[in-house]
Amino acid sequence: MNAATEGSLLRRVGVKPVINACGIYTDLGGSRLSPGVWAAMAEANRSFVRLTDLLDASGAQIARLLGAESARITPGAAAAIMLGTAACLAGTDGTKSERLPDTTGMKSEVLIQAGHRYKYDRQVSLAGARLIEVGSANGTRADQFEQALGERTAMVIHPAHLDGKPGTIGLEGVAAMAHRRGVPVFVDAAYMNYPTGLMAGFLKRGGDLVAVSAKYFGGPNAGGFLLGRKDLMPAVANVHFTRYESGKYLKFGRPLKMDRQTIVAVVAALEEWLKADHPARFANYVRQAEMLRAELAGIPGLDLSPMCFTMDEKLVPAPVNCLVIKFDTSAGLSASQAADALAAGDPSILAVVEGDRLAVVMDVLEDSEITIIAKRLRKILKR
Fold first, then answer.
1. How far is it, in rounded angstroms, from Cα 80 to Cα 305?
2. Which residue in 370, 241, 363, 381 sits closest to 311, CA to CA?
3. How open is the CA angle 69-73-74, to the nearest 5 degrees?
4. Gap between the Cα atoms of 250 and 253, Å rounded
5. pLDDT mean across residues, the chain
6. What is the DSSP secondary structure assignment for residue 139, as one 8-state letter?
7. C-alpha to C-alpha distance for 173 and 186, rounded to whole angstroms
């Protein structure tokens, strides 16, 4: 079922179903789980398990799949940043993990380049660390970074999507300086899972912990994992939620607990992603974009262009995963007005607005939903 036909439960609780033409977003519930992932969750639902055992075993499986030393499933990439930071602050010391976010007597500074500031660096401070910005808007030099590394430096955070940004130091350079001082480098690679070798590739380039979000490879919205050094993963386990009730220490990460169903779903989705025919996936986006273009062809005031809406929310020529609809004055309404009208309908249709352009993103759309989008647009434009 899709958003056009489903929704009895949603309607009982008072919300309209949504056709998601924006792509994979936390606020829209993440991805669309495959039958195989659903089956794995149902199987996990039939049995109980010690979550300490399941987290250890699932982490070992992910590490094997990706060729990493170690891994641990987390409730998303933002939680992975919190847990990774807390692990670098407290290590395997249970008393310290219990005291967080109080970092008295601990190494508590996390370095980030000024040009790498982004909204998810807030997760560092939630663990109790003090985020230290190195350099300025004009850039960060190696000598500035070397000088910032001190006795209180617990970690460096390096957002992968900003690696190589002009005026910043690349991952290899940062890692070389940090490792000379025994400081681990945390790489936030939340959506960087294709080509699939990227994930463990950040470890080979100098990362010590790498965060990945599951929703970007077809996993649950509240799922993700950390890849990393084998000696660091026990510290992550030390600050995670397990044994809060049954163990000796009241762990920092207790609010970041996970269901057994979510844990197995992350593994199942990753296994599917690694086996997937990705050229066929991209070809399907092209086919769907052409399908929508054919449905809208000939409407005055619309310019229809297959394009790519990237994970960092930019429109670029390729690889195609969306149809960009540019509105001119003869269309009778603007892109934002069209988007508002689509959203106001039932089911609500949500698409991306960029100036005078409306992007219909195919990442999670079914063919039947594309037909609904075309009909709704024609109705809105009175065509």
1. 37
2. 363
3. 130
4. 9
5. 96
6. B
7. 14
